[in-house]
Amino acid sequence: MSLRSSGEVEQGCEIDSDPRCSALSEWVGVALDMGTPADLSSLAGDAGFRRYFRTRTEPPLIAVDTPPELTNPARFVALADYLRRNGIHTPMVVAADTAEGYLLLEDLGDTQLYSVLDDESVEGLYAEVMSELLCLQQIPFEEQLFPAYSRELLLKEMRVMPEWLVRELLGHQLDQQEEKLLEQTFELLLNSAEEQPHTIVHRDYHSRNLMIRDGERPGIVDFQDAVWGPATYDLVSLLRDCYIRWPRERVERWVLAYAATAEAAGVMQPVDPQLYLRWFDWMGLQRHIKVLGLFPRLSLRDGKQGYLQHLPLVIRYVLETAERYPELKPFTDWFSGTLLPQIEPLPWYSDHRCAGDQPK
What we know:
The protein is of the alpha+beta class. Helix content is 45%, strand content 10%. The two termini are 19 Å apart.
C-alpha cells in the first residue's frame, strides 16, 4: 500500500519526544547541511512500518523512517536506482542511511491518480499509466533485485484470507471440507498464474501509488516489494483497483488493448484473447482473496480501520469474477452461503452488489 493510501491522517509523532523522529530530524539537517535539525511535518503512512515526513525546505523533500529490522531500506534504494536508470519515474534518493533506516527522497507531490480519475479523465490517464506499465515490463530482469513471485508466496498471500477474514474477523472455524475447498481453489489460481508469461511486477500498481504532476510522467511509489512474476498482476491491480471500479466491458477493452500492445513490444508472445482475459480474471481473484485477509489484518492487528470500508468492493470483485467460471462455482457458493451472511451485519459493510457504483 502507498503513502497516504488509506486516506487516514497519521497520528504522527512529536519530533522532540520520539527518539527516532528526533534522530531523523537531526539526520536530515546534516544531510542537507542546514546546521540545525530539519523542520518536518508528518504525513499519513502506508500499510507497513514506514513513517513519512515532508521537509519545510524549498523544494520540499520526503523524509522516511523505515526501521531496518522491519523493512529493507537498502533494497528500496537499490530498486529506486535501478528503475530510474531504466526510465521509470520513481522518487530520486537524495540521501540514505540504510543501517539506521533513514531516507530522504524527492517529493512527488500529493496528487494521486485516484484523486483525478473520473469518467472523462480515465481514458487519457489510464493510457499514460499503462504506457508506464509497459515500460516497467520491458526492463531487463536482474535476478538479485527481483525475487520470484513463487507459488509458495502466492499461496501464502491467499492464506491470509482464511486466517484474518474468516477466523479473526468473523470468528468462523473452518472444517476440513472448507479447508479442502479453499486449497483446491487456490491450486487453480496458482496454476493459472504459473502458466502466464513473467515480467517485473510492481505488486501494488494502483491509483494510490501513482502520482500525477503536470508536464511529467506519472510518478511511481511503493515499489519496494517488486518481484518477477505473472504478466497480468500489475494490470489487474490497476484496472480492478480496490478503491475505484469501472464497468466490466470497459475494463475488458483496456485489457485486450494492453495485451496487443505488450505483444507488439515483445513483452510476450501472441496469446488467445479469451485465455488472456482468464489469466487477468484469475490473477485478480488471487489478489482480491489476499486483500480480503489483508484489510482485516490491518484493522485488527495494526489499528488501521480505514481499510475495512473498501472490503465491499473487493467482495464484489471476488464474486463477480468467480461466478463467471464453472470451476470456481464451489468457492462462490461457499462464500455467498457461508461467509456473506456473517459479513453483512458488520458495521462497515455496505451492499457489495453496488460497491464502486456511487461517486467517489
